[in-house]
Amino acid sequence: MSLNPETPAGRFLLLALKLAVSTALLYFIFTLVDVRAAFRAAIGANIALLALATLVRGSVFCLDALRLHWMAPVQGLPYHQHLRLALRGAFFSQLGFGFLTGDAYRAIGYAKGAGSLSEPAAHLLAARLAGIAMTALIALLAALFLIITKSDALQGFAKQVSYGVLALGLVTISLLWIIFKVLPRHVSPSIQGKLAHGTQALKSLSPRIWLLSLLVILLRGVSLWLIFVALHLAISYFVPLLASVTGTLVTLLPLAFGGLGLREGAIAGVASLFGTPAALSVSAAILLRMAVVSAASLGLIISLFMPKATKNAQADQ
Fold this sequence. Notes:
The protein is mostly helical. The protein has one domain (13-26, 33-303). The chain is 75% helix and 0% strand. It contains twelve helices and no strands. It has helices spanning 8-31, 35-43, 47-71, 79-93, 99-114, 118-148, 155-182, 189-203, 207-230, 238-250, 262-273, 278-303. The longest helix has 31 residues, at 118-148. It is globular.
């Protein structure tokens, strides 16, 4: 059977492999902790705080839509139509290849309103790049803080995060240089036009887009912090923030179904390094997944009652 994702058989096989990887990762995580203790902790969590964590996570989808609205990949498209696509994209991102699945859905939705796929796709990728870059920067600053404060127990982890972020940055910068400086000299005019859309999208990353990306990352950390508090654990915001950004960076690897298993392992591992009981760390990671899925599912339902994108939509007044 072919692994070509463009064929039904290839897509099915890739999905099966991702599910297998996620299942294996979750099984490995649960073998390292007292599952009963983790389950009891989750059952005893504060429901109101869990609901608040879900709402905070849902607000991230709204801000993601605002980011695209400010970047204006489709001229004249009002915010509520950006939000409709963002809410649906967030749901689909949980059901496949992570954010790539959601962004692909959104790009197609934008193309229906604008008649072109390359421009909205370029803006989506640029917005995602801003989010990843800001996430990596926060992870690097947090790691450097741990190194400077000479936290002996966390020196190894901090150095690994620093090396990983620097390597990711170097690879990203190299790829961008090749794509936008070298590639245009060797491709057809039609491809050059698409690359021009990418250049324009990168130029649209204004300071407020970077600030909005920072706010999104901080809110993700708040959501995880609320879950730890719901588990009746007093914890510094620094820990869930670092766990959140680490989990986000780990899920960039398209190895598991919607990042399932990868994010949970990263979050539980980071929290445990700071002295959080392993059972509580795993409970928090699983509850975060439930919060994200719940927020995305609620967003999908809300999006069903929102108007569809139209080609001649006018901007919000």
